[in-house]
Structure formats: C-alpha cells, structure tokens
Amino acid sequence: MKSGYGKSDQTFLRNYNIRKVRTILREEGPCSRVDLSVKANLDKKTITNIINEMLKNGEVEVVSKSSNGAGRPKENLALNGEYSRCIGLDIGGTHITGVVLDFTGKVLCEHNIDVVNNDSDILFQLCDLVMEELLEKSKLSIDEIDKIGIAFPGHIDIRTGRTVLSENIQGWDDLPILDIFTEKYGKEVMANDCSRLMALAELRYGAGNDERNIIVFDLGLGIGCGIVINRKIFPGSTGMSGEVGHTIVKVDGSRCTCGRNGCIEALASGWALSKQAMDLLKNNESPMLSKTINKNTMIPTTKEIVLAAKLGDDKCIQLLKNAGRYVAIGIINSISIINPSKVIIGGRLIRDNDIFYDEMIKTVKKDAISELIKDMKIEVSALGDLATAIGAATQCFEEFFEYE
Ligand SMILES: [Zn+2]
Questions:
Q1: Which among 3, 210, 287, 394 is least buried, having the fewest CB atoms inside 10 angstroms?
Q2: For residues 34 and 39, what is the distance between their CA atoms, to the nearest angstrom?
Q3: How far, in Å, is the centroid of ligand 1 from the Cα of 293?
Q4: Which pLDDT tens digit goes with each residue over 182-222?
Q5: What's the pLDDT at 4?
Q6: CA dihedral 258, 171, 241, 276 (to 10 degrees)
C-alpha cells in the first residue's frame, strides 16, 4: 500500500465509528443524522452509510420525524432494544439476583432469590430457577438471549476463566466457571468480580454516569470495590484489583478468610458482624439481639443486628459503629491512592443501616485528607440491589460501544 493505509485499518476505523455512533445514541437518546454528524465529528456521508447499515441489520430504528416546514422532515433515530438481549446473574453468598437487559440498557425484568444455604450444588440449581423466572417474566425464549453475564463474589483469573478463590461461596474455589455456565445454558458466558460489575453498572447507568474517576464500594457479606479510571474499569494485571476488604487495618486483628489477620473484611463485613454478634449472644451481652434473632438458625444476620440496634441495644449499636469506622478507613485509604471525583457506596450491608452508614460517612469526612475530599462527592448507589446484576449483563454489551 502506497499510502500505508490498508484495508484492515479502514475496517478498524469504520468499526470504531460505528461503536461511537451507538454510544451517542445510547447515552443521549434519539438523534437525527445531522445531530450524529456533529456529535461524532464525522461527515454526513459517513454517518449516512453507518446509519443505513444499522437500519438494515435492525440495531437502530426511526422513532419520530420532525419538520421545520422546509425540506424533508428529519428522522430521529434510536437504538432498537430488541436487537440484543442479555441476562445478568449476580451470584452472592446471600442471594442470586438476575436481570434481562436490552441493547438500550433497559431492565426488562428482574428476579431475586435469597440464599440461606450457599453450598455450591444448591447455588447451581438456584441459578436455573432464576433463569427460568427471568425467561418467563420477559416472555423470551433462551434462543432470544445472546449472552449470559455472571457476577461472582471472589477472584476470577481473567486469563483462564477459572475462579481462584471464593471466600463467601463454599466449594467454588478453582472452578472453570465460564465453561460450566457455557455448557449449562449453551450460550456465550462472561464472568467478572461482583464489585467490579457493580462499578460498571454505576458508571454506565447510575451514580457514576457523569464521572471519569470513581471508586464503588460493595459492602455485603464480603467487602470489595470497583475502580474506574478515565471511564474504564481497572481490572489489575490478573483481574484481582479492588480487594479493599483484604487490606489490613488492625495489626493482630481478627482472623480473615484470606488466612491473615486484621483485614477490613474480618472486622466489618456482613460475615464479620454475624461472628461478632454470635459472641455477644454467647456471653449474654445482648438481650435485645436474642429476641430479634431467628431461633432456627441462631446465626445473627445484619438485618437482625440492625433491628436490635434500632430497638436501643447498646452493644449492637457499638458493633455497627465500629464496623462503619473500619470501612471508612478503607475508603479514606482508597481516596488517598486513586483521588476519585466521586465515591459510590453500594451493597446490601447499608440497606436500612443508618447507624453504620452515618458513622462511616462521619469518619471519612473527619479523617480523610481535606484537600482530597474538598470537591469529591460521596453518594449511595443509584441502582441499589440490582446494580451488580445490571453490571453482569452490561459486560456482555461493552464490545458494541466506545466510551471515551
Ligand atoms: Zn483478608
């Protein structure tokens, strides 16, 4: 090639431009060809070619026409949700939540099952149940689903597709999770860490939508975070970034599931709170908790601890405040490292848990470097309990878009 500009370069550029146009349509809603030409900084001929191709394969549709009285009416174009639909499954230690997401990012339906026994075999069966419910609610057949996205509470080696370690699901260590789900449902499957996918959902559709650098803290049975740098999820070199729950904040503190001592997760996560509350019960230190707890299990859940605290139990109030302070240390340290414009707090641990949340925010504001948080926002997740499942489905669509 004389120009040094080959066919593969042209194909690359064309695909890049198509992804750019899709992203504008998704983020800004219906646009005319003229609007797209301006926003994508592409000439009208290129836009016309791209739109013709997208109309032909059904990924965009004309949603309205507008006229200013002169010439041909302008056609307003939008992405067609039915072009592709994916399922997202958030598999947690306490729940399996699923959504069907369409090409525009709309949640078509959701389904949740609370998990009491998080043994590996039962979880696989519960995933089947959630899948069946989602297909029934959305009135879609499995053939109409393009991909399945899994959010997993533990490490997945992105190079091999195998789980490395699952602290909150028994028996899911060193599992070829991608192969298992691909064989199970006959679909292409993508999987990633649950906190990272929560961050992806908040970035694309939630509280992080207008930001470039954010940290999303996922507080639940375990503790993790998703890091976004320049509007891109930062996975780390082997996909194990964001393990804020396993940063040590108390030398010689409680034993953690990772085998070390004093991690935030061992002091302030959902499972750590249950363990601490069990000690209170054993020592008869919390009369209120012995009334709010489920007598069948005798393992206090965060919900039951929060209830006892709300009913005035001093020990439970103290336990939640301490946990809030430890998580705050993790947030403060992360802010010092990343310098985000916004911190987003999500996960089931903060649900109706004002005592914990208020103490955590108070500590961050008091102890973080003031220059770093002067203009930084801190907000609760906009997508709530669905965030991770939405992120799980969103990962399946990422290759279609170009976020800059
Ligand atoms: Zn740990």
A1: 3
A2: 9
A3: 27
A4: 999 999 999 999 999 999 999 999 999 999 999 999 999 99
A5: 56
A6: -40
In the chain, the number of structural domains is: 3
Which pLDDT score is estimated for 152?
86
Q: How many C-beta atoms surround the C-beta of residue 77 within 10 A? A: 22
Ligand 1 center–CA 243 separation, angstroms: 9
Give residue 272 CA to ligand 1 midpoint distance, Å: 11
The confidence score (pLDDT) of residue 113 equals 95
Residue 126, token pair as written in the block? 């519960």
The residue among 30, 49, 79 that closes a domain is 79
Q: Do 25 and 66 belong together in one domain?
A: yes
SS3 79: strand
CATH of the domain at 53: 1.10.10.10
Strand order from edge to edge, sheet including 232-233: 232-233, 223-229, 214-219, 342-346, 377-380
Q: How far is the CA of 123 from the centre of ligand 1 (A)?
A: 24
C-alpha 205 – ligand 1 centre gap (Å): 31
Could you tell me the distance, in angstroms and rounded to a whole number, from the CA of residue 302 to the centre of ligand 1?
20
Enumerate residues with CB within 5 Å of ligand 1 (an ion). 246, 256, 258, 263
Task: Give the chain's mean pLDDT.
Answer: 92
- pLDDT, residue 398, reads 96
How much is the pLDDT for 118? 67
Output the CA 109–ligand 1 centroid distance in Å. Answer: 35
Residues of the chain with pLDDT under 70: 1-7, 69-70, 118, 167-168
Tell me the C-alpha distance between 70 and 131, whole Å.
52
Instruction: Compute the distance between CA of residue 285 and CA of residue 307 in angstroms, rounded to an integer.
Output: 16
Instruction: Note whether 136 and 217 are within 8 A (CB).
Output: no
Domain boundary among the residues 79, 107, 136 is at: 79
